[in-house]
Design brief:
The complex is a heterotrimer of chains A (about 475), B (about 100) and C (about 500). Chain A contains 15 helices and 16 strands. Chain A has helices at about 55-65, 160-180, 220-240, 285-290, 300-310, 315-320, 325-340, 345-365, 375-385, 390-405, 410-415, 425-435, 440-445, 450-460, 470-484, and strands at about 5-15, 70, 75, 75-80, 90-95, 100-110, 110-125, 130-135, 140, 150-155, 190-200, 210-215, 245-250, 255-260, 270-275, 280. Chain A is elongated. By secondary structure, chain B is mainly α. Chain B has a domain at about 5-40. Chain B is built from three helices and two strands. Chain B has helices at about 5-15, 20-40, 75-80, and strands spanning about 85, 85-90. In chain C, about 40% of the residues lie in helices and about 15% in strands. Chain C contains 15 helices and 13 strands. In chain C, the strands form two sheets. Chain C has an eleven-stranded mixed sheet, sandwiched between helices. The chains are: A alpha+beta (about 475), B mainly alpha (about 100), C alpha/beta (about 500). Chains in contact: A-B, A-C, B-C. The interface between B and C is large, with 48 and 62 residues. The complex binds zinc ion (ZN). Zinc ion binds near residues 20, 23, 25 and 40 of chain A.
């Protein structure tokens, strides 16, 4: 029997606010344990919460970007359960009136558009951090993260493959970074993803029993876990077994998941509206204000890059894959155009897509880690345009410039990389080359056009790449003809 | 609706209470009596009632995202019975 | 002069004329506490040294002719579920036996800024769950009018302390009439203001949607003084409401002419003590004579109020008290092997039986199976009650009932039903369910000499009307002048 996979995602995103969801404690990462706590986030008797406006605004922003309806009437609700990282023994979340609902996100799978429904986005608070002390068989608790604002984004079960899941997550992360809603660092836990998965025979409309997969620390882990879980469920069904509704924990090292616990009657979170927080109203005015200040989203930017800069779709997709890169591109194009008085977008694009990508990959870093600025890049392009350096030399200068942050003309001077355009100097070198390569000359004269390239190469080699290529071409032609 | 001993056990589990047999029986009796009294609400039909808050009176103003002082760490830990390295301590969650 | 017998407004006059030193005043009440506390057990923790220190500082300020607020130098008691920085706050529970709050509740912060002096923390039912202080983990507070009777609860400590002149006023909380019923049982004035009028930040509530901080005073004038001080908008409490009108002392007027007083027909039933019936009827006559107009009103859903109040109370409590897990503060069971044991043993040892019953019920009502049939239904009934009240206030300015249909009862008398199911709070909890203000004032004494309380309720934020009606009643009666005899004999 043929099976199909049905996946829904639950994505937790830590919001980029200064203070916590319900108190004024700092959300800064990496401080001394329990140094960012107060009666409110510690759940000390009598302390009452108040709602962070910025967190509400960021949630609305996300909702608008994901084409959601924004709720006018909002409540905060309590999810009751005991765990040491949860100071009040309930998590304040939005069960009954989530801030956003009924949205979607379009993703691109091998050139095909796919729409994934967003069921809801709700605001909630993070829990503290547990540190295991195995020597003393203890768990230690740091409540600095307790109360940090989160949104949970819940998708419809519209995802059908590991690739779709990753494409969705990449697009979502890109949007969240564009919106400045979150850092989306999976390593620091500011983006976390749970996978709900079931399988069903192809053609069946009802859903199968689903499992929930936790502890997915990278997009790669999501991809592997989906593949693995679909296979596991298929094996069970094919051997006549039954899928249990359970929570499973992904072990990325072993490449498999283990059951954490089965769903039980005791798993009743006894949700109810938090009586300490009155319902809050999001009026049209607030939504409109946020709407008017929305940054351009990746999809819009992709279209604009094609129409405004005349870039191929492929270039546009890569350049908009991060907000940083897209901004860098636009700033560079602007500077370059101002200098030249004409549109030279493709030249800039080529440098970013070619040499920049190569360098970041080689060094294993990101654009932000390099010292490259739009101004430096344009100065480099200027040197090429003016014939001060040749293209191959420019690559060398580029690499150095990205790492040292030095201006390109300084690098050229320091290293003596200025292009040789002096005819007499070059003529001498060309003659040397011709004398040293009689066989190649003979080949060329016999009609092997390729041999000419070899001669150019030899000339460039002798000048350490600094010779003006056009000039070398012309001189070689001239000299060979003279010899004839 | 009458609560059974099993219900009492479930309720105790939700409340994180440890009850001996005698206590369970005591609560079974006592809580059933209370439930009986509460059953009076069953005679009232509330299907038509809408749960809407009075939105006009209570317009809650959200808090500005500004960092304020946290508690001194000594005060954070002062009321705890067991702490280690500036953290609260519990028996291992892995056991 | 027996300084402890004074009221807040009398002290104010003397201090302003320079006729009274604060230190003398404080020493006076400390002496009074010394001679009565062993009989009454109203306090859990005393704050004597600090109080004397503050008194001396204040006397200096006064000699420098500093302008001070109305309550400056007045010693008061705080119910032990309101957080006081550095002063043990137990909620009368073993669970918080050694809990010392690292912060002040907003209401205490306000009173400290007004230089009022905390004398100590007052006894109550554990976490406010009960109607007699018999659920306190530490002691029972006796009724100053008869030491065999309960002082009422949860705020029994506060009512007994004010009635016996141990403090000049007390700050407490009211989630089900549990501040007004003790005030009635002990023959003093108790007010539960409109929900949102007084900040709850720092109140260790069990049922936040029902509970409100109020005060217990010796008479209505003091009530207006204290209320004026504690009513303010607090951005730390999201349920706090901005309300411009808070000059309650300006309503201290002897005038009820034309005031429409509604008496709900549903309240009259067999449960009333005959003396309560006599004196409540008498009170209605008095108000009529003073020019008020008595109108019949109806509260059709009144009979469901107790049950739905109980459900909401239990549900909110079950969640609010879940945080006591032995980790961050409070009691922690010894000799536990794992996390589950830490939770279960700590909570089983730390909570009393009444609290356990309420937590279990609350968790039941919130569970999937019961949510709609109980919790949600209770919320709907609350909505219906609000509607009843709204309609009633179209016909009248004030709703009148007895505070409690029964008198202070013997210890171990009342069945241990959880709060709200108690006979004595059936009328009082209406104000908690609907968020309106309500006051209890003395309106008579039973044949055996126990105080009877009259409850007046007004529409939201109409505390002024309440004060005016209560003040008029008080000016024309002398029930508030009577003092418990026994205590004077023991000195
Ligand atoms: Zn905090």
């Amino acid at each position: 029997m043929k099976y199909e996979t049905v996946v829904g995602l639950e994505i937790h995103v830590e919001l980029k606010t200064q203070s916590k969801m319900f108190c004024a404690c700092s959300t800064a990462f990496g401080s001394e344990p329990n140094s960012q706590c107060c009666p409110i986030c510690l759940g000390i008797p009598g302390a009452l919460p108040t709602i962070n406006k910025k967190a509400v605004e960021l949630a609305i922003k996300t909702g608008l970007a994901l084409n959601c309806k924004i709720s006018e009437y909002n409540t905060m609700d309590r999810k009751n359960y005991f765990y040491p990282d949860l100071p009040k023994a309930y998590q304040t979340t939005q069960q009954y009136h989530p801030i956003c609902r009924d949205g979607y996100l379009d993703i691109n799978i091998d050139g095909r558009k796919k729409r994934v429904g967003i069921t809801r986005i709700h605001l909630e608070e993070d829990a503290g951090k547990l540190i295991h002390d195995s020597e003393n068989s203890l768990s230690l608790i740091d409540y600095n993260r307790a109360g940090v604002p989160l949104i949970e984004i819940v998708t419809e079960p519209h995802i059908e493959s590991p690739e779709e899941a990753v494409a969705f997550l990449e697009e979502l992360r890109n949007i969240l970074i564009y919106l400045d809603v979150s850092d989306c660092k999976m390593q620091e836990g500011s983006l976390r993803c749970d996978v709900n998965l079931s399988i069903r025979p192809k053609g069946q409309t009802s859903l199968g029993t689903r499992t929930e997969m936790k502890n997915l620390n990278s997009f790669r882990a999501v991809q592997r876990a989906i593949k693995n879980e679909a296979e596991r469920q298929q094996n069970i069904l094919e051997s006549g077994g039954e899928i249990l509704q359970e929570t499973r924990r992904w072990d990325d090292l072993k490449g498999q998941s283990v059951a954490m616990r089965e769903k039980q009657e005791a798993d009743d979170y006894r949700y109810f509206q938090d009586p300490d927080l009155v319902p809050f109203i999001i009026d049209n005015q607030m939504v409109e204000k946020i709407k008017n200040n929305m940054p351009e989203l990746p999809a819009q930017k992709r279209e604009r890059f094609v129409s405004e800069y005349g870039l191929p779709e492929y270039d546009s997709r890569i350049l908009t894959s991060s907000r940083e890169l897209a901004d860098f591109f636009e700033a560079s194009v602007k500077l370059y155009d101002e200098m030249k008085g004409s549109k030279e977008s493709k030249t800039v694009s080529n440098w970013l897509m070619g040499d920049l990508m190569r360098l970041t990959k080689e060094l294993g870093v990101e654009l932000g880690d390099l010292k490259l600025t739009p101004s430096l890049l344009v100065q480099l392009l200027k040197l090429i345009d003016q014939g001060v350096i040749s293209s191959p030399i420019a690559k060398e200068v580029f690499d150095e410039m990205c790492q040292s942050g030095q201006e390109p003309d300084k690098i050229v001077e320091k290293k003596g990389l200025r292009q040789i355009s002096d005819i007499d100097q070059l003529k001498e070198i060309v003659r040397e080359v011709i004398q040293e390569n009689p066989k190649t000359i003979a080949d060329y004269k016999a009609g092997k056009k390729k041999a000419f390239g070899h001669l150019v190469g030899q000339t460039m080699k002798k000048t350490k790449g600094k010779a003006n290529p056009q000039l070398v071409n012309k001189l070689l032609q001239d000299e060979i003809n003279i010899f004839q | 609706m009458k609560l059974s001993l099993k219900d009492i056990e479930m309720m105790a589990q939700w409340s994180k209470l440890e009850l001996d047999q005698e206590e369970k029986l005591g609560f079974e009796d006592k809580l059933n009596k209370i439930l009986q009294k509460i059953d009076i609400i069953k005679e009232l039909d509330t299907n038509h009632v809408q749960l809407t808050e009075d939105r006009s009176i209570h317009r809650y103003i959200l808090r500005d995202d500004k960092v304020g002082p946290s508690l001194n760490r000594d005060l954070v830990l002062k009321n705890a019975q067991d702490t280690r390295n500036g953290m609260f301590s519990v028996p291992s969650i892995l056991d | 002069m027996e300084l402890y017998k004074l009221t807040v407004h009398e002290i104010r006059g003397l201090v302003n004329k320079g006729k009274l030193s604060i230190e003398k005043l404080v020493r006076g009440v400390i002496q009074r506490i010394d001679s009565t506390e062993s009989l009454l057990d109203s306090f859990i923790t005393l704050n004597i040294d600090e109080a004397l220190h503050q008194a001396r500082t204040l006397d200096q300020l006064i000699s420098q002719e500093a302008r001070l607020s109305t309550l400056a130098g007045i010693p008061f008691g705080v119910q032990d579920n309101i957080c006081t920085f550095g002063i043990r706050t137990t909620c009368a529970s073993k669970m918080l036996d050694d809990f010392i709050p690292p912060y002040d509740s907003s209401v205490i912060e306000k009173l400290k800024n007004s230089h009022s002096i905390i004398l100590g923390k007052l006894n109550m039912d554990e976490f406010g769950m009960g109607s007699s202080t018999q659920n306190s983990a530490f002691k029972f507070t006796k009724n100053p009018w008869s030491l065999h009777k309960v002082s009422g609860g949860a705020a029994g400590g506060g009512a007994a302390a004010v009635a016996s002149d141990q403090v000049f006023y007390a700050i407490g909380s009211d989630a089900s009439g549990c501040l007004r019923q003790p005030a009635a049982f002990c023959g003093v004035v108790g007010i539960k203001p409109t929900y949102g009028l007084v900040s709850r930040f720092g109140l260790v509530a069990c049922a936040p949607s029902l509970e409100q901080i109020g005060c217990i005073t010796k008479d209505v004038t003091d009530c207006a003084y204290v209320l004026e001080e504690i009513a303010f908008y607090d951005k730390k409490d999201s349920t706090s409401i901005r309300n411009g009108n808070s000059t309650y002392t300006s309503y201290l007027m002897d005038d009820v002419k034309g005031l429409k007083i509604g008496v709900p027909k549903e309240i009259f039933d067999e449960s009333w003590d005959p003396d309560v019936r006599t004196y409540v009827n008498n009170s209605i006559e008095i108000l009529k004579k003073l020019g008020a107009q008595i109108v019949d009103i109806t509260l059709p859903h009144f009979k469901y109020a107790s049950a739905s109040h109980s459900i909401i109370f239990c549900c909110e409590s079950s969640s609010n008290l879940a945080r006591y897990d032995g980790i961050k503060y409070g009691m922690r069971a010894k000799g536990v092997d794992n996390l589950e044991e830490l939770y279960c043993k700590t909570r089983s040892q730390g909570f009393g039986q009444e609290v356990k019953a309420i937590l279990m019920l609350g968790n039941l009502f919130l569970s999937n199976k019961f949510y709609d049939s109980h919790y949600k239904k209770a919320l709907k009934i609350r909505e219906l009650l609000r509607n009843d009240i709204r309609k009633a206030f179209e016909k009248c300015h004030i709703i009148l009932t007895p505070t409690s249909p029964i008198l202070a009862f013997d210890f171990n008398h009342e069945s241990s039903l959880p709060i709200g199911m108690s006979e004595s709070q059936r009328y009082a909890l209406l104000a908690n369910m609907t968020g309106i203000p309500a006051i209890s004032i003395p309106c008579g004494f039973s044949q055996e000499g126990l105080p009877i309380g009259l409850q007046l309720m007004a529409d939201k934020f109409n505390e002024g009307t309440l004060i005016k009606a209560a003040y008029t009643f008080e000016r024309n009666t002398d029930y508030h002048m009577k003092k418990p005899m026994k205590l004077e004999v023991t000195e």
